[in-house]
Specification:
Blueprint (H helix, E strand, L loop, with lengths): L1 E4 L4 H4 L6 H12 L6 E3 L2 E4 L4 E6 L3 E6 L8 E4 L7 H19 L8 E7 L7 E5 L8 H10 L4 E7 L8 H9 L4 H9 L1 H11 L1
Parallel strand pairs: 1-6, 1-7, 7-9
Antiparallel strand pairs: 2-3, 3-6, 4-5, 8-9
Helix pairs in contact: 2-7, 3-4
């Protein structure tokens, strides 16, 4: 799987509900002992770390590659603004698929998943849909749908709740405001549900 999270980049937008996808994928990668996120595939990438260290009296610490990881996924985080994130997702998927085919077989079919915030769902609720389902006004998903064309992909939404008002300015302030501690905890509690969804898609 290539698991792409979309959100807004940089410190201004860090820790906001609109970047729930980034928060959840960072949390999962950390809990699964993946490598730290570093630049790659036109965004930030984290892969399984199957390196093990052993200590012997003669050689000191030696580093070896362990067996295949439990979940061989590549996490990718968008570095572009949410509304145009489809461009980066398409570039990342194209490069990742080419890499996968070089490593395995020329006909290998990797699967693409986009993890995103879901305004219409309760905080922490996980939903899974196929790519063609309505984007429900989510501009990041609309951008992905426009860019990915004939590619089959999956969406994993992480609920962020919604304000009572439907006024666009109120909604914008809600999704782009800094999260409170209990909101962040609610998103982190969604992680096992997201992992279950990813395993089902895999």
């Amino acid at each position: 799987l290539l698991v792409c999270s979309i959100g807004n980049p940089g410190p201004t937008y860090a820790n906001t509900l609109h970047s729930a996808g980034h928060i959840v994928t960072s949390y999962i990668a950390g809990r699964k002992s993946y490598q730290p996120f570093t630049k790659g595939l036109s965004g930030l990438v984290s892969r399984p770390d199957n390196t093990t260290f052993s200590l012997s009296l003669l050689k000191g610490y030696t580093k070896t590659q362990g067996g295949p990881p439990e979940d061989d996924w590549t996490f990718w985080q968008s570095l572009s603004l949410m509304n145009v994130s489809g461009v980066g997702v398409k570039k990342a998927y194209t490069a990742w698929l080419a890499e996968l085919r070089r490593r395995t077989s020329p006909t290998a079919e990797g699967r693409l998943v986009v993890v995103h915030d879901e305004l219409e769902s309760a905080l922490g609720k996980v939903t899974v849909r196929e790519s063609g389902a309505s984007a429900r006004g989510h501009n990041g998903l609309k951008s992905c749908q426009q860019q990915l064309g004939g590619v089959k992909w999956w969406r994993v939404g992480v609920g962020i709740g919604r304000p009572e008002s439907r006024d666009p300015n109120v909604v914008s302030r809600y999704v782009l405001g800094k999260m409170r501690g209990e909101e962040r905890s609610g998103l982190e509690r969604a992680a096992p549900g997201v992992v279950d969804a990813l395993r089902a898609i895999a």
